[in-house]
Amino acid sequence: MTQDPNAEAQIAPSEVGANAADTGERQTTGPVDGAVGVQEDGYSDHEVAVASNFEGHTASRLDPDAEPVLEVENLKMYFPVKSSGLLRRTIGHVQAVDGISFQVPRGGSLGLVGESGCGKSTTGRLITRLYDPTGGSMMFEGKDLAQISQREMKPYRRDVQMIFQDPYTSLNPRHTVGAIVGAPLSVHKIVPKNKILGRVQELLEVVGLNPEHYNRYPNEFSGGQRQRIGIARALTLNPKLLVADEPVSALDVSIQAQVVNLLQDLQKEFDIAFLFIAHDLAIVRHFCPEVAVMYLGKIVEIADRETLYSHSHHPYTQALISAVPDVKQAAIGGRRERIRLEGDVPSPINPPSGCRFRTRCSYAQEICARVEPPLLQIGWRHKVACHFAGELGAHPATPVTTELLGVDDQGTPTGTAATPLMTGPGYEPEWYDLKTKQLTSA
Amino acid sequence: MTSTVPSSTPGSDSTIGRTEGPILVVEDLTVTFPTEDGPVSAVQGLSYSVEMGKTLGIVGESGSGKSVSSMAVLGLHDAKSSQITGSIRIDGTEVVGLSENRFRKLRGNTVSMIFQDALAALHPFYKIGAQLAEAYQVHHPNASDRDARRKAIEMLDRVGIPQPDSRVDDFPHQFSGGMRQRAMIAMGLINDPSLLIADEPTTALDVTVQAQILDLLQDLQREFNSAVIIITHDLGVIAEMADDVLVMYAGRCVEYGTTKEILTHPEMPYTWGLLSSIPDISASTDARLIPIPGNPPSLFSPPTGCAFHPRCGFKDKVPGRLCYDKMPELATGSGRVEHLKRCHLANPDAIYRAEVLPEIAPDLVEEIR
Question: How many CB atoms lie within 10 A of CB B54?
């Protein structure tokens, strides 16, 4: 951890601020000190610099060689369920997150998707240590964030920041924007008091807000602008990892794209890694080159974008993707088959035995109730937890995992030793090929 | 349990029942709210019609007037604090200026509404069954409590609530989000309305539940042959559900036509912007996400000329200062079917094909003709 204040205050407004869609309120204030390439747009107050905004972004690309900035292994969060009455005994646990492992590459993004209640937001709150995990490890910069105390956590809070879903409830209405964005600076005593304002203005510029608006209150801003304030606050301490929990779902459609583009710009500019939590699969597909799908506290499939969206192997991922309406395809009549998932997600207090998805899965058999499928690497960057993993319409008739687990087709142990499985957070150079049932490499 | 079903085509082709024209005709509707800062026209000069068995989708950002216009159809605006002019005819009856007593007979019976937030729309103190039964008894004063309860159970069963005869005695908080929305739909349909208005029916729901609810709405529409208006900001829902689509911006209709025509040959830059700012799940990764710059205009001081011009990237293609000075009329587009648009651009379809589509859906340029 560097304690040098100068090293911290190095985010300079560059073309990011100008490119990031304008808010329609920026006046031609001219560059703030040190601003590089701020566009003199010359538009009147009511107009916006349309030309620069129309350069939209293509989807983010995967860098397979990036080192992980965060490695999560077997992370667990059980919330106790108390009985009613005086004694309030613990009568059970909500297994909100139950043994998940993944990596977030440096400067890259991992998407976390799933239905409400699947544990994706809990995961985000664990990584920022808003909750204390029940078990598992979260390695960040060589330190296990799961083990350290809240006091030891403080320096890491600079590096791990969060963007919240609802910009109406996550900004204190009684504080000015300057106080909100500047608070992290004074809490961590990074810049002397008289320098805070300058830094706040730089940050507002970076996220595309008028730096002169630092003394306004949140209620004077629209939803999209408020979300930009939330983003500026998260950027204040030059984080290495941002946990974005549904950062755009509360915004209007046209504003969503502005914020997504802004986040892409910031990621490129400052090399920030993102854990992007969202239920909108199309936005996640655009923003994240790698995506993990969660169901009832477990990761059921994790893969690079192409594999996950075009060749998913888990029945739940397939159902989830098929449920997303596709405007441009529907318009030309290219309607896809929709897999109808019946019923609701079971209670995480009493999750189904074996595979947690089996109660809603049309491929489920005896083995699924008896043995939990491991999250098995079946491709270069592809892991899936299913006994009958296969592409849509090509699920195998017999379980693919029996030899590895040492069980027969019904899930009864055969006595043969189970093969040790690769269960780490990362990807191995060798994987279990479903066709040959052998270890293969690229 | 899962089952694979082909997604059905939007709307139904059944033509049973009424043939004597559309169930709802809105003409030149204007809704104005007097405020301390002067009158605000939330809806201006809106005209559309919906036929039985058809679905109209109304799209727009928050504040575009889409909910306000539909609440006018249901007579939910307080006459003291709003001014409504123009004409709304439901099944031939003019309802603008209709007395509250007579409106009450229509509301819930001929027209009913499904609200966005089912938890807020259901009363937390009353059992689901009691709320459904009340909706039934209001319009069937002779129905006994037992009949009403039987009807409530029947409707819950219809909308796919498991064990309806025991769930009928549950409170709203005991239902999951999807089930609450189903219960809302059951309540909306209990009097077999001819017109159902669904205001963001799936916005708060997960995609899987959204798919269930949309399927349910389509099935029920086919069964009851009712007309449906879906208000949403999600073009995906429109693409799946609607026969016709009406795009609203700053209180006015800016584009109106059949869904297929509007989504494949949009002629108004705002509609282009909406299409450009949503990523598609099967789009090429070279497709760009292009936001609409700026924010929706304030209705207190709407921009001069075309309300969209401050955010429009194509106003340079219109000669002179037409976009700044003159509000375009809602005119027929260049498409092959009935298609209205409010824009000064002379050849919008060519611009869309040459400049917008290659950016947002490079893989579809060939397919959309």
Answer: 21
